[in-house]
Design a protein that fits this description.
This protein is an alpha/beta fold. It folds into 2 domains: about 250 residues, 3-Layer(aba) Sandwich (Aldehyde Dehydrogenase, Chain A, domain 1), CATH 3.40.605; about 150 residues, Aldehyde Dehydrogenase, Chain A, domain 2. The strands form 4 sheets. The protein has a 7-stranded parallel sheet with strand order 10-9-11-8-7-12-13, sandwiched between helices. It has a 4-stranded parallel sheet with strand order 5-4-3-6, with helices on both faces. Helix 1 packs across helix 8 and helix 2 packs across helix 7. The longest helix has 21 residues.
Length: about 425
């Protein structure tokens, strides 16, 4: 066994021991630990920002895009937001021990379906250092131990954050090993973590396609994937175009480097000329590059490099994570739905229309984790949907889908109580 493999196995063994303690910790103990973790983040603010400056400088030298640098960069406000998010998790209801259902057998045996922790969860992620604190807080509140493996671009930041979180845990009397960061950026570390059957109960990868495919290829433990956010907005023939423009600008421009930003704009042929004359120009003014099909280019007056260019087939299945938008004209809602099925990632898709029948057809037919009618895809977020902080957005169907909050970080068991009944 290699030194790295042995190191990760020992880390997982420590996590398994810690998980047994955390699983039985009362709500007030976990909440006290979360408060201490938030305090520790603020106390370590200078060290966290110094480490982040190292990561950002390295990212700039490596040529990371502006959107990726934005995901990576921390400042005083963002560190405060991280601490606030940890405190926010403490304020959420404890999912552990929640009775989902109760019933009785004819002979008097009483059954209950009860939420319990999953155990040891491995989370593999890229870019955003705040995932370190969000994931740690959520896993702890749900009674789990967590093993974190962040991206190489945020390695120094993640180390500083994880160190602070572990200090907070220890100060509150819970095992620091309940939150551990793999101290390596080697891809081999991912392979080793995913193969630890009997020690790791679940792996959650969130990031680019290559990362997730690597996890799936090597996994011997269950995986819940947080795949690309190839989100689409379809503007129907019966749309309120002013509303559609505001939704498009918000969904693309507010924060283009996140998974719930739209990457594809589908326009019904009947409204495409008017929409592009208004909203298309507004998108261009915001710095968005439009990659259009032939019909879109004709409506925009032909190619106008660099802001208007011809789209290729791959553009409609790409998560750009920057101010780029693939635009296509569709002949019907059915055609738009078919396009989303063929090119989307089952993350978040939206329709703008005043036709309730068309909207219901779209909501029922589009097989994505979250589907919207007359609202921005940017609401696919644990906080916005009322779950508090989140691990990420699952594009799987089992066992969790959409924003993964506390409830999705538990499983369940059946508890039976009797007075001597036999079958």
């Amino acid at each position: 066994m290699s030194d790295l493999a042995q190191q990760i196995r020992e880390l997982a063994q420590r996590a398994r021991v810690a998980a047994a303690t955390v699983a039985l910790a009362p709500s007030e103990v976990k909440d006290r630990a979360l408060s201490a973790m938030a305090d520790a983040l603020l106390a370590a603010r200078a060290a966290i920002l110094a480490a982040n400056a190292v990561d950002v400088a390295a990212g700039e030298r490596a040529g990371l895009s502006a959107a990726m640098l934005d995901r990576l960069r921390l400042d005083e406000r963002r560190v405060q937001a991280m601490a606030d998010a940890v405190r926010g998790v403490a304020s959420l209801p404890d999912p552990v021990g929640r009775v989902q259902r109760e019933w009785a057998h004819a002979n008097g045996v009483r059954f209950a379906k009860v939420s319990v922790p999953i155990g040891v969860i491995g989370i593999i992620y890229e870019s955003r250092p705040n995932v370190t604190s969000d994931a740690a807080a959520l896993c702890l509140k749900a009674g789990n131990a967590v093993i974190l493996r962040g991206g190489s671009e945020s390695f120094a930041s993640n180390q500083a954050i994880a160190h602070a979180l572990a200090a907070g845990l220890a100060a509150a009397g819970l095992p620091a090993e309940a939150v551990q960061l793999i101290p390596s950026t080697e891809r081999e570390a991912v392979k080793q973590l995913c193969g630890l059957t009997g020690l790791v109960d679940l792996v959650i990868p969130r990031g680019g396609r290559s990362l997730i495919e690597a996890v799936v290829a090597h996994a011997r433990v269950p995986v819940i994937k947080h795949y690309d956010g190839i989100c689409a907005l379809y503007v129907d023939a019966a749309a309120d175009l002013a509303m559609a423009e505001q939704i498009a600008l918000n969904a693309k421009c507010q924060r283009p480097g996140v998974c719930n930003a739209i990457e594809t704009l589908l326009l019904h042929r009947a409204i495409a000329p008017r929409f592009l004359a208004g909203a298309g120009r507004a998108l261009l003014e915001r710095g968005v590059q439009l990659r259009g099909d032939a019909e879109t280019l004709a409506l925009l007056g032909g190619a106008q490099p660099p802001r208007v260019v011809a789209a290729n087939a791959e553009d409609f299945r790409t998560e750009f994570l920057e101010l780029i938008l693939a635009v296509k004209v569709a002949g019907s809602a059915g055609e738009a739905i078919a396009h989303i099925a063929a090119h989307g990632s089952h993350h978040s898709d939206a329709i703008v229309t005043d036709d309730a029948a068309v909207a219901e057809k779209f909501l029922n037919a589009v097989d994505s984790a979250v589907v919207y009618w007359n609202a921005s895809t940017r609401f696919t977020d644990g906080g916005e949907m009322g779950f508090g902080a989140e691990i990420g957005i699952s594009t799987d169907r089992l066992h969790a889908r959409g924003p993964m909050g506390l409830e999705e970080l538990t499983t369940y068991k059946y508890v039976a109580r009797g007075i001597g009944q036999v079958r």
